[in-house]
Sequence to fold (233 residues):
Amino acid sequence: MKSLTELLAEWDKARTPQMAKVSAEVLEAIRRHTPDGAQSGIGNYYFVRLGGTEGLPHYARLIAKALVDNPPDVDVILEAGAGLAELPFLLSAEGFSTCAIERNPYCFKAIEDLRGKLSAIYPDFADRARAYFGVFPCDIEGVDPARTMLISTCLMFTSTQEQEDRHIEGMMGYHSIIVDVARLVRFRPHPKDWPAIERLFLDAGYREVRVIQEYTSARLGDGGGKVIWYEKA
Ligand SMILES: C[S@@+](CC[C@H](N)C(=O)[O-])C[C@H]1O[C@@H](n2cnc3c(N)ncnc32)[C@H](O)[C@@H]1O
Fold:
């Protein structure tokens, strides 16, 4: 596994053509939607990003780079638990059709705001970047799971085990999946628990296409991140 220094260099290198512009718009959107700091409805998760220079988290940058370099053979890329939809919107700025699903009304308001700003920059952006206020799993008009890539990264659930199980079960019908097995459910499971979460996807008939990112850090109490791209075998 890579050291943190190697990872920082890798995250910094993960650039796509539209990333700087979208990242700056995301930071502006966070600023507009956290007038009361961390107490605002979109939450501390976003507020802390204002202390840095990037509107996009490192794993979103790595995922976007992987997909721009190796476009998946799907019609739509769907993110379940999209937050401010920064990743799907970056992907739409790069030319992909995307859909963001988000259940938090404060985040959804920020999504619509950001969508408006990016539509003014990129022609046809609104046609390529859809946003859906709701709870995943759910049916979405025009989205055929057999022709869709589903992304779920950092959900940081305050959910019951039953809700988590429903979320994972709902992921399984999709042609391809990108998932952070360290942060999807059970709030930052320890690396020793990652194989059990990976096993859920392998047992459901997926094969690993590639590991987009894998790291552990003592600063996270030996937690970390492991983002895997799966496809139906
Ligand atoms: C911590 S944020 C992360 C956002 C983004 N995916 C990222 O990794 O930066 C997780 C978001 O997922 C949303 N969420 C969690 N479970 C969801 C579900 N079942 N359906 C829709 N949204 C969900 C939460 O409301 C929250 O805004």
About this structure: The pocket of S-adenosylmethionine is lined by residues 45, 57, 80-83, 101-104, 107, 135-136, 153-156, 167 (CB under 6 Å). The chain has one domain: 4-232.
